[in-house]
Give the backbone structure.
Amino acid sequence: MQIDLGAERLIAAQKQDERIAVKIKSFVAPSAISEFHTALGQCLNYRVALKLKEPERVLYLAVPLATYKYFFSRQLPQLSIHEYQLKLLVFDPENEVIVQWIN
């Protein structure tokens, strides 16, 4: 499975004692809902692939702070996040810091 998409990629990392994988999504396309559909589908597929290769890893979707505030506060993304138990990492791309971990 090809997972390196340039600026949007899947990386392996560690959060305290937890082994994680982070899918970084920039949400730069004109349609946030289309980007969300793509990101959600990729995360679901990556989650299955991780179960096979590295079942101890927990997958997070990393999204920019502005996108989280503008788009992820809406009903459809919130319901989807809950339904699919999607874990989020909200980051500030300007300051290059993680703002929030959402389990």
